[in-house]
Structure formats: C-alpha cells, structure tokens
Specification:
CATH topology: Rossmann fold
Shape: globular
CATH superfamily: P-loop containing nucleotide triphosphate hydrolases
Strand order of the largest sheet: 5-6-7-3-8
Radius of gyration: 17 Å
Largest sheet: 5 strands, parallel
Structural class: alpha/beta
Number of strands: 8
Order of helices and strands: EEEHEEHHHEHEE
CATH class: Alpha Beta
Length: 201
C-alpha cells in the first residue's frame, strides 16, 4: 500500500497555502509533516481526508480498496475531539463506531482499556479531562480499523504516560502495515520521515 501526492496545490479562501507539493508514504511508514504555524500542515491532512479539495494535483492510495476513496480508508484525528458531553464514554465510542461503519474492530471495552479508559466506561464525557477526551478520540482509531491514520498534533493534551501509550498504538498500527501522516511541532515517539512544508519564513 502506498499513499502519494503529486503536485498538490492548496488554496484557502483567496490565499495559496502551498503548491507543487509531492509526498509518498508506504505501508508501515510514518510521515511527520512539519513547518511553521500557517504553513499548511492541517490543510494537507484535510486534503487527504477529503474535507478540502485540492486546487491542483492528485492524492491517491495504491493497494487499498479499489472501490473506496482515500477518505473512506482513513481516520482523521483533528484538534477537536467531537464528543457528545451528555453521552457516556461507551456511548460516544459506540456512536462513532456505528457512524464510521464499525463491527470489524476490537470490542469497545477492549478499545477503551487500551487507551486507559477502562475504568471510565459509564462516565459522561462531560466529566472527562482534556487528556481523557483525547484518549477517547484515540479509541476510535482502534474500534474501526482503517489503514491510514491522519493525525493533527496527536499528543495534544496527553501526559507523558498518554504519549507513551499512543506511541505504542502507532507502532502497532505501522507493524500491521498501516500508514500514518501526522502534523506535528514535536516528536511523535516513533520512527518517521519528515515532510517539511513552507520551509522559508
């Protein structure tokens, strides 16, 4: 499996964010997208996730499901956790599993245990700390298997133990042949190649 972008151009509003961008990541590989604030790291992830359309260029995933788009084979973990505060931890994960077409992943209780929330299954999401909310978002990656993980500042709000936990999950995903594209200002805790956007300025 290989994700690639050829001569990709991104325009937001009237502003060109980047142009002529080429990248490639193979199965089992992580690509760390770096650059100054506003360089287009999040925009690139959103392009790959199908949330934005490229102004030019092609993004493709070879070796995936031929009848599915790149977006349908990807998880996008953005800045916002997209949780419903009134629902319990388990109900939130169940909602996302149903919405994303789950049923082939781990049992929900196992996913929550893997991210350190096994004790909080019945708690309302409104009572969770920022770090716990992030852990719950990470559990979605496990509940519905998809080969491509698109991670925007993935360790935000996680403490040292949470960062180590997430690094372990990322390594497991890569070992299973998955791909990771992560926008980051700091180390991911895993081996990765760097794609720097907007290196000037």
């Amino acid at each position: 499996m290989k994700l690639s972008g050829i001569d990709v151009r991104c325009v937001r509003g009237e502003r060109e964010v980047f142009a002529g961008l080429n990248f490639q990541a193979d199965a089992g590989e992580a690509l760390a997208v770096t650059g100054r604030n506003g360089a287009g790291k999040t925009s690139l992830l959103r392009l790959i996730a199908g949330l934005l359309m490229p102004a030019a260029g092609v993004i493709s995933l070879e070796g995936g499901e031929a009848e599915m788009t790149v977006a349908e084979q990807a998880h996008y973990l953005g800045h916002r956790d997209a949780l419903k505060p009134a629902l319990s931890v388990a109900e939130n994960l169940s909602f996302w599993t149903d919405f994303l077409g789950g049923g082939k992943g781990r049992a929900l209780a196992d996913c929550l245990a893997a991210v350190g929330l096994g004790h909080a299954i019945e708690l309302p999401a409104a009572t969770l700390s920022a770090g716990q909310r992030r852990r719950l978002s990470v559990a979605r990656l496990l509940a519905v298997p998809r080969p491509l993980w698109l991670l925007d500042e993935p360790t935000t709000a996680l403490d040292v133990a949470g960062q180590a936990m997430f690094a372990g999950l990322m390594r497991d995903h890569l070992r299973s042949g998955g791909l990771i594209i992560a926008a980051t200002h700091g180390p991911l805790g895993i081996d990765s190649r760097e794609l720097r956007i907007g290196s000037v300025g």
